[in-house]
Amino acid sequence: MAISVTNNDGPIDLPPPVDSAQLPPSNDDDIELVIATFSEHMQTSRLNGNEWRGPLTIEQYLKREKHLLAQDLTKDGKEVAWLLTSSRLPLDQDGNRSILASCETIPMQAYCAQNGKLKEVLIHGIGSVFTRSEHRGKSYASRMMTELGKKLETFQQHNGDRSPFSVLYSDIGQKFYSRFGWQAFASTHIHLAAMTDGDYQHFSKDLPAVTDLMADDLSSIPATDYLKDDLISVSRSNPARLSSLWRLICPISGGTMHERTLSQRPWADLCPK
Q1: Domain span at residue 22?
Q2: Residues annotated as region Disordered (predicted)?
C-alpha cells in the first residue's frame, strides 16, 4: 500500500517496492532508462527524501524540490529525471512506472580548449543518483550509469553535436563512478566553516553591510572570462590535452568530482563548431 504525503498540489505517494520475486536481473533486456514524468519525478523525490531530507520534514523537503525545479537552471524541462525501469513490471494505479533506480541531469554551459582553441559546448551535470534500500545489491545503479553515459553523448545536443564530457560529484568515494567512465579529479569545492553565534556577534559589528548575491549579478563578475583565458593558456602549454571548464550557478555538494570525457574521438568531434 502506498504511503501519502500532502504537498501543496495534493498527496505524493511513496511507491511500494517491487516484490522481490518480480525484480529482474540488472542485465535483463527489458530494463531501460527512461525520462520520468513529473509525477514519477516527484515519486523519486519522495523516495530519496526519506534518506536525504536531513532536518526537514518530508513535506518541507518535497516543497524545496519543487521550488528548485522552478529556477533558471532547471525550469522549462532543463532538469530531467531518469528512471531505470522494466517494461515487464506493472504500472501503478496512476500509470507510473516501477522505479528500480533514479537520477537527475542538468544541462550546463561549458568550454573546452585544445591547442589554444576555445569552444563553447553543452554538457550535463548528474545528481540525485539513488536506489531504494529494498532494491540495492542488484547492480541497478550500475546498469543505470552505464545507460546514462551512452544517452548523454547526444541528449539535448543541437545539430547532431555530441557532448565532450559530463560531470558529477560523489560522496561515496572514487571507485564506483570510475567503473563507468567518470574519472576522479581534484575537487574545486570550497568549504567555509560556519561561525559560532558568539563569533558572529563579535565580528559582525565591524563588517560592512551586505546585500544578497543574485543570479543576475553574476554576469558582472569577470571570473568566467579569467578562467577562459587561463583555459586557453593551459591548452597552449599542453596541446595534446583537452582542458575543460563549466559553469554551474547554484550550490553544489562537496565530495569527489568526476568527469567523463569522450576522449577517444577526434577534437573536431569533441568540440564541434
Answers
A1: 3-190+201-270
A2: 1-26
